[in-house]
Amino acid sequence: GFKVLASASHYWPLEDVDGIHEFRDTNGDIVEGMVNKGIYVTEKKGVTFLFFGSYRNSCISNPEACGPEGVTFSFFWKTQDQQAKLLPASGGRVISSGFKICSNEGEGSVEFYTRGNAMMKWKASFSPPGPFWTHVLFTWKWRDGLKVYVNGSLSSTDPHGGVFYDYGDGGTAELLGGSEGSAAPRAVTGAFDEFVIWERALSPREVQLYFTAAIGVQVLLSSTLPWSLMTTTTKPELPSPYQPVMSALSRGRAGPQSPGSALGHLQDVSCCLPAQPLPQDTALGLSQAFLKAVEDFMLLSNWMDAPESPAVFGSLVRTIDTVMAHLGQHLDGNPLPLTLEGSSSVADYSVLKMHPQTLNVSHYRFPSRGQSYISIPSEAFHGKACITIVGLLYHNMHYFFHSINPTDTRIAEAAAHKGYLISASSYLISLKVEPLPQLSYNLSGSPLITIQLAHRLTPRQYSQALNKSNRVHLYCAFLDYSNGTGVWSDEGCVRESGDLNHSVCLCNHLTNFAILMQVVPLELAREHQVALSSITYIGCALSILCLTVTLVTFAVLSSVSTIRNQRYHIHANLSCAVLLAQVLLLTSFQLSPATLPCKILAILLHFFFLSVFAWMLVEGFHLYSMVIKVFGSEESKHLYYYGIGWGCPLVICVISATSSLHSYGESGNCWLSLEDGAIWAFVAPAMFVILVNIGILIAVTRVISRISADNYKVHGDANAFK
User: Fold this and answer.
1) How many whole angstroms from its chain centre is CA 32?
2) How confident is the model at residue 303 (pLDDT cuts 50, 70, 90)?
3) 209, 153 in Cβ contact below 8 A?
4) Are 345 and 155 spatial neighbours (Cβ–Cβ below 8 Å)?
5) Please, what is the angle between helix 634-642 and helix 596-627, to 10°?
6) Is 545 within 8 Å of 537 (Cβ atoms)?
7) How far apart are CA 326 and CA 331, in angstroms?
8) What is the spatial distance between Cα 465 and Cα 456, in angstroms, rounded to a whole number?
9) In whole angstroms, what is the distance from residue 43 CA to residue 14 CA?
10) What CATH topology corresponds to 1-165+188-215?
């Protein structure tokens, strides 16, 4: 563990703290980091001031400067009072590339920002400490995202991050921050020790080794709030009926397994739980062991992009529901209410056993804080019998429901758009109540369940949603297991309100909920499609006919003088480019997008429509050379004109097709994609030609007007001026 610490880039031991071992060399001296500046601890009136210095162009303060090895920050932290009340931060907020560690009441979070070429933010939450020393360590890598470890174990992750649009919640108290700019002091009622930075991401084993070395004992983590260090090397006694289950979960993690066998193992465990009372400490140990096994399965699975991914993880969710419902049903102890709360990298969970009459609020809400929650009116709880409430808020499960075929759901509106896949765009949240609450059968009645879910959109989903040529459908959906497998359905749920950032749903039942998103391109009505199609075919046919006549005419008149021959050459090439573009355009309507013929035709259309604009530019240059400034011989101009008319479009097309071939013939037609910027390979040259030709038109018009005015003064012929 101390070898891991010895490899750190920066190390500030701060004060001597009982129970936390500092790194000393063979002479017994504390080993300082390469830079022992930037961290200052000044106690005044019981408050610790702590701020982080500036490391410009360093991975420490600018994640964009990080190599593939990433970065790690580590420290010990505790609150100064038993109530763990955190005062608001003083001074300005650090808003820059870098990191923040923040705290609201009852929730801590780590945030990473990049504000250079990629405006991204990663955020992972964890439970802040009470009056016990708690080790917080977080790692960040471009490939793996943000991982937060609490007391040596992985607590939460944000593997993908999100597009960074705002600067976070103004009510957040910042505990500690690092940035490229200057930072004002921040005040919190907390104490810190052993601040360490590695300019690489530590492995889970290295995290555990360092943590064990730092405290010098084996530890047992309590996931009830607040987190605490318990200096004991013994595990709690487990009742014999649950000992085989715990052993089976441990054996399942010991050796390598395929994803299929790992899922089967978890399902076997859920089916073999003994119907025996569960003391709170045993229930906590069982829940942690099971969710750790689920975490191992999710890391092991290779179904992320597989078509069967929604079905597999639907089965996994049902297995988790079965185990957690068993915990709630058999949770034993006195007096009521009994509470079991915890957090893992898989989910935040809560099990509550109570009498309904003890609920002294208008609604029961899970979780009690955060933007995503389920709320049940107290009037839905009836009778005097004991009720059990089991809640789960999954952290990463929604990533595995990203390619759902609408025909595999029971959402009628989604099934009407068969060709467009559905993705989960929020956290998955679950609530189970026994006995069932009394809810209104009618969605316009009461009481009903209220579900609010913050959206977790990927950058691609944001781009699609903001595209005004798309219609975004958001569905309040749940996993329906009535036929034995999990099928997404919206029966008994309605989306009451919301926007692109969140949704509020009303439902008359309880289960697993999520917001599903389906992006469908806007479609014209049938009569408009027929009208536009008719205009296109008739217009292009007339154009092709007239262009053919034009080319024949130029061929007949090609024996005229040299100057006129050059003009005819330009006109003929322009007409040829337009003719071929029109023919290819009509042909493209018969091909299906995302096929090789469509892709080839899209490249040819790009070339010939660019050539149309290029020859229009040649027309402008030729007019300029005739009226304003004569340049070059007839032969040299001939080569220049052909180079501009056919050569420039060819170069642009080759570069565009080589760099972004995937942008041709994929998005609904045989043309360039409008989503990823490839369309500018056509729009930019076309705009350039238009601007140049407008300039030439103005210059030529001025010259002709001046000549005509002079002729009018000499000859007095008004018609010549007109």
Assistant:
1) 39
2) low
3) no
4) yes
5) 150
6) no
7) 8
8) 13
9) 13
10) Jelly Rolls (2.60.120)
What is d(CA 38, CA 9) in angstroms, rounded to the nearest whole number? 14
- Please answer whether residues 515 and 477 qualify as being in contact, where contact means their C-beta atoms are separated by less than 8 angstroms: yes
Q: Is 524 helix (H, G, I), strand (E, B) or coil?
A: coil
Would you state the torsion angle of the CA atoms of residues 163, 165, 170, 175, taken in this order, to the nearest 10 degrees? Answer: 40
Q: Tokens 């009628």 belong to which residue?
A: 412
Q: Apex CA 296: angle with CA 294 and CA 300, to 5°?
A: 115
Residue listed under structure tokens 């399902």: 267
Global confidence as pTM: 0.51
User: Residue 228: pLDDT band by 50, 70, 90 thresholds?
Assistant: very low
Torsion angle, alpha carbons of 302, 464, 142, 208, to 10: -60
CATH class name, domain 526-712: mainly alpha
> What is residue 224's DSSP assignment?
S
- HSE on the CB side for 651, CA within 13 Å? 7
As beta bridge partners, residue 426 has: 455
| Confidence check: pLDDT of 220 > 50 | no
**291: nearest Cα among 346, 248, 328, 340:** 346
Strands laid side by side in the 493-498 sheet: 363-366, 373-377, 449-454, 502-507, 493-498
Place of tokens 């920066």: 10
CA gap 136, 100 in Å, rounded: 13
User: If you average pLDDT over residues 547-566, what whole number do you get?
Assistant: 77
Contact 616, 624 (CB under 8 A): no
Q: Please tell me the predicted confidence (pLDDT) of residue 613.
A: 97
User: Residue 526: what residue type?
Assistant: R
Q: Residue 482 has which token pair?
A: 């009535």
Helix%, strand%, coil% for the chain, nearest 5: 40, 25, 35
pLDDT band at 175 (very low <50, low <70, confident <90, very high): very low
Which residues lie closer than 8 Å to 438 by C-beta, 6 or more apart?
380, 381, 382, 447
Ramachandran quadrant class, 145 (left: phi over 0; alpha: psi -120 to 50; beta: rest):
left
d(CA 289, CA 273): 14
- Could you tell me the CA-to-CA distances from 361 to 337, 374, 378, 387, 566 in Å, in that order? 15, 15, 7, 16, 89
Q: How far apart are CA 196 and CA 597, in angstroms?
A: 58
Asked if 174 contacts 102 with a C-beta cutoff of 8 angstroms, the reply is yes
Rounded distance between C-alpha atoms, residue 408 and residue 88, angstroms: 49
Tokens at residue 168, please? 């976070």
Alpha-carbon distance of 112 to 123, in angstroms, equals 6
CATH fold group of domain 265-521: Chondroitinase Ac; Chain A, domain 3 (2.60.220)
Terminal-to-terminal C-alpha distance of the chain: 93
**Alpha carbon distance 376, 365 (integer Å):** 6
Kindly list the domain boundaries of the chain, sorted by start residue.
Answer: 1-165+188-215, 265-521, 526-712
Tokens representing residue 623 in the block? 């007019």
Above 80 in pLDDT, residue 206? yes
**Residue 381, pLDDT above cutoff 80:** yes
Contact (CB, 8 A) for 672 and 659: no
Cβ atoms 242, 230 nearer than 8 A: no
Q: Read out DSSP for 131-191? A: SS-EEEEEEEETTTEEEEEETTEEEEEESS-EE--S---TTPEEEEEEESS-----EESEE
In order, the DSSP letters of 9-42 are SEEE--S-BTTBPPPB-TTS-B---S---S---E
What letter represents residue 169's amino acid? D
